[in-house]
Amino acid sequence: MKIAVYCGSFAPVHLGHIAIAQAVVEEGKADCVLFVPTGDYWDKEVAFDWDLRISLLKIYENKKILVDEDEEDSKCVRTYDLLKRLKGKYPEDELILLIGGDNAVNIDRWYQSEYLLANYQLIIMPRAPYHKEDIIMKMAALGKKDYQIIDLEAMDISSSYIRNNLSDWDKLKDIIDRKEYDLLIKALDK
C-alpha cells in the first residue's frame, strides 16, 4: 500500500488539509494519507495539546485518511527520524512524503536530505510563493525525478485564523467541520 505521510502541527486541522489529503487519494498518488501531528517546532510552540489535536483529526478519519496516534512520533523533530520510525510500523508499505511547496524548495537544507531524496518519493502541494514552476525547477536542480505535484488550487486558510476567530462560527463555517468546532469550543471552555 502507498501511504502519503502528512506532517504538521494541525492546530487545528482544517478543510484545506483535508482537501489536500482527498486530492492525493483521488488523483491516485497514494492509497491513503497518514496525518502525523508534530510536537513543538524550533521556532514556535504548538497551540493545542496532543490529545485535542488527535481528537480533532479523528473527526476526519476514514479508510483513506488515517491518524498517527503515537505521541512518540510527534517527538521526532526531524523528518528523517520520523520516517525511519514509521517504516518500522509499516514495513510492507511504501511511504511517500507529502509536503508543501515551501518545504519542497528547501528540502536540500533538511537533516539527511540526500537520504530522504534518494529513498522517498515526494508529493508536493504548491503553496505561495512557490508555484508549480518553482517546484519543477528545484526538483530538476536536485536531480529528483520521483515526485508528483498535486493538481489542487491552494486554499487560503490558516490554523491561526481559526484560533483567532473561535468565538465566531460564521467566520469558520466554510473552513472547519461543525463537529470539530463544537469539540474545540468544549475543550477550550474547560
> Helicity, in percent?
40-55%
State the end-to-end CA separation.
41 Å
pLDDT < 50 runs, ≥5 residues: none
User: Can you write the helix and strand succession as a string?
Assistant: EHEHEHHEHHEHEHHH
Strand share of the residues? 15-25%
Would you count the extended β strands for me?
6
- In spatial order, strands of the major sheet run 3-2-1-4-5-6
Can you give keywords for this protein?
six-stranded parallel sheet, globular, alpha/beta, 190 residues
Describe this structure in words.
- The mean pLDDT is 92.
- The chain is globular.
- The relative contact order is 0.18.
- The longest helix is centred in the N-terminal third of the chain and has 12 residues, at 15-26.
- The protein is of the alpha/beta class.
- The protein contains 10 helices and 6 strands, in the order βαβαβααβααβαβααα.
- Strands 3-2-1-4-5-6 form a 6-stranded parallel sheet, with helices on both faces.
What does the secondary structure layout of this molecule look like, with pairings?
Blueprint: E1 2-8, H1 15-26, E2 32-37, H2 50-58, E3 65-67, H3 71-74, H4 79-89, E4 94-100, H5 101-104, H6 113-119, E5 122-125, H7 132-142, E6 147-149, H8 159-164, H9 169-172, H10 178-189
Parallel strand pairs: 1-2, 1-4, 2-3, 4-5, 5-6
In short:
With 190 residues, the chain is of the alpha/beta class. The chain contains ten helices and six strands.
